[in-house]
Amino acid sequence: MAGGGVSPLANGMATAADWMSAASFISMAGLISFMGYTGSIYLLGWTGGYVLLALLLAPYLRKFGKFTVPDFVGDRYYSNFARLVALVCAIFVSFTYVAGQMRGVGIVFSRFLEVPVNTGVLIGMSIVFFYASLGGMKGITYTQVAQYSVLIVAYLVPAFAISSDITGTFLPQLGFGSTIADGPNTGKYLLDVLNDLNRDLGFAEYTKPFTGPGAKSMLDVFCITMALMVGTAGLPHVIVRFYTVPNVRGARLSAGFALLFIAILYTTAPAIASFARYNMVNTINNIEYSKAPDWFQNWEKTGLIAWTDKNNDGVIQYSQGKPFAGKPKFSGEKGSYGQELVSNTATSNANELYIDRDIMVLANPEIANLPPWVIALVAAGGLAAALSTASGLLLVISSSISHDLYYRMINRNASEKQRLMVGRLTIGGAVCVAGYFGINPPGFVAQVVAFAFGLAASSFFPVIVLGIFDKRTNREGAISGMILGICFTFAYIVNIKFLGGTAWFFNISAEGIGTIGMLLNAFVTIVVSRMTPPPPQEVQDLVESIRYPRGAGAGVDH
């Protein structure tokens, strides 16, 4: 709890840093850059989810007075088994989420220390373990205040510079919808030019929804957005932040501050995505490989960009389609740096270029020829975003094990010193597992994080909301709902991402299935609760009391 003494302003900044992970800083603009309209699901889902969290959950959970989500579930549903199910869900969600952060750290170190991505992940693991195990919640809170300051400056400085250069408009939020100031497209609107470029290259139009190669259906877009929204509201590492302020009013204030700090980055992301796409296509498409710009050669060393000359003309051809049967992989065997393909077989389409979407924000300043100090600043911002979220997630995992499992269920006589030792050992084990998934990720950073949000949506959100607003919901319903929701969602994701299965449920993707899992969870929880005995009267009275401010109704004749 950090002693409950953190100010709402500081907690708002720490919450923003905790919440804006490598997925927000590194990957989100990259996804929008490649996916266009459809990429806005991440923007809408994560921002809308924070509003849900601030209004629906945070103040009530703070008044309930429990420090972790499993603690809330265990006491609200008067069951250690419910606590155990919530504990397993919290750890599972947190591991999935932290894997995305480790991948982001690896990408940053890979480029700027000129080491393999896997080595970058190992370096990040060491850093996170060091200050998460030594600092605790108070240390991490003020570290995250500093990290927010770094990441927001790092995000805005290149955005201002590139917006001014391309459109002549200083504010990227306005430049995004402005005309191009220089070059062959002078006077044309930036988004119109991007539509034309995408169409010429065989991609879906940048601003057109639900149509074109690789486009998602309206139902899938809705489900992904909803899963991200309710997943945000159920994320355990964000919820626990509202216990570090002195009172319920502080929890509301810090939620408002966090939303403001988050909005600064999230309103800038679509602009950065558009600028990066415009500059990237114009600087490398139809350019002789021998004359490729420095940024291309720098990123090629990491294996996150790769080119194969399919028609032997020495010119880089970029278009729709996979260039290789596999993905490029870093290899140090060919000189100091080089790359080796998982499969040496080039695909039959015309596209010769592989670009990892996660590099777009980090490469953006280099593509735009900004000074080296700006490039370094963006790298620092990417690290700050990834490390701040990773540390918060590791604390959730360690507190869940040391407090909810070890202290509440195994050894009620454990001293604080013993619980701290268990927590630190847990962080060590969690870092190793997270590092493994950072080295062997099941997708792009934002995709991995989207899985975590789907799992949080399908497991936590219904039981937390019903636990606050429906006093009839009982332990049998909550346990049944959580188990069914997370098992269905997990099985669906594994079937598609690891077993090669198809999206059999109305063609909803793995990123969006959390919405269906959430609905199943809520339905089963309500039905089972109505078919079994109601909670004890004291639990119903507790639920009634947490929805009203202290003193509300005093003096009224009921």
Describe the structure.
With 558 residues, the chain is mostly helical. Helix content is 66%, strand content 3%. The protein has one domain: Sodium/glucose cotransporter (Up-down Bundle), CATH 1.20.1730.10. It contains 21 helices and 4 strands. The protein is globular, with a radius of gyration of 24 Å. The relative contact order is 0.18.
Residue stretches low in confidence (pLDDT < 50, at least 5 long) are 330-343, 551-558
The tally of domains stands at: 1
Question: Approximately how much helix is present in the residues?
Answer: 55-70%
Radius of gyration: 24 Å
Q: Strand pairing plus helix content: what structural class?
A: mainly alpha
Number of strands: 4
User: Can you name the CATH architecture?
Assistant: Up-down Bundle
CATH class: Mainly Alpha
Query: Could you say what the CATH topology is called?
Result: Sodium/glucose cotransporter
The tally of helices reads 21
Q: What is the chain-wise order of helices and strands? A: HHHHHHHHHHHHHEEEEHHHHHHHH
The largest pleated sheet is described as: 2 strands, antiparallel
Q: What percentage of amino acids are in beta strands?
A: under 5%
End-to-end Cα distance, whole Å, is 37 Å
